[in-house]
Design a protein that fits this description.
Beta-Lactamase; globular; about 160 residues; 5 strands; five-stranded antiparallel sheet; alpha+beta
Amino acid sequence: MPLADFVLYEEEYGKVEAELTALCRDARITTAAVIDKNGQIIATAGETRRIDATSLASLAAGDVAAANGMAALIGETEFSVFFHEGQRDCIYMSLLAGRFILIAIFDKKVTSLGMVRLKANKATEALASALTSASSKSESGKNAVGEPLFADITSEDIDRLFGQT
């Protein structure tokens, strides 16, 4: 299924956001996010005011794509974990459910890479489960109660959305 067809329902969004919040707390991460491989933000938690989350998501997706190009050159399918270390802050990224990326930004004086990896690995299962559930619903083209996606949207709703009424 193309990434553009992905719809994240409120139930799954709540699970993803709760898991990211717990990851920030438990691993003492400054900022956590889940994005898709196209660089679209799915959910964020923690301190997001000091960063441009949209640019971060886009650059992270590009980083993963470039690294996976390198993986192919050496005979690997893909790399699943990425780490960048700065003077103060570090970025840890890992792939989720084949089409999403977990991003964790942390101060290396506050927490360690080992702690971040440990807690992120535990969070990955719950995040992947919620995202896979949302993907399945998107693939079926139906919402949580079995109705077609967007069945209740009328042309009047669309006109109001774009200010044409």
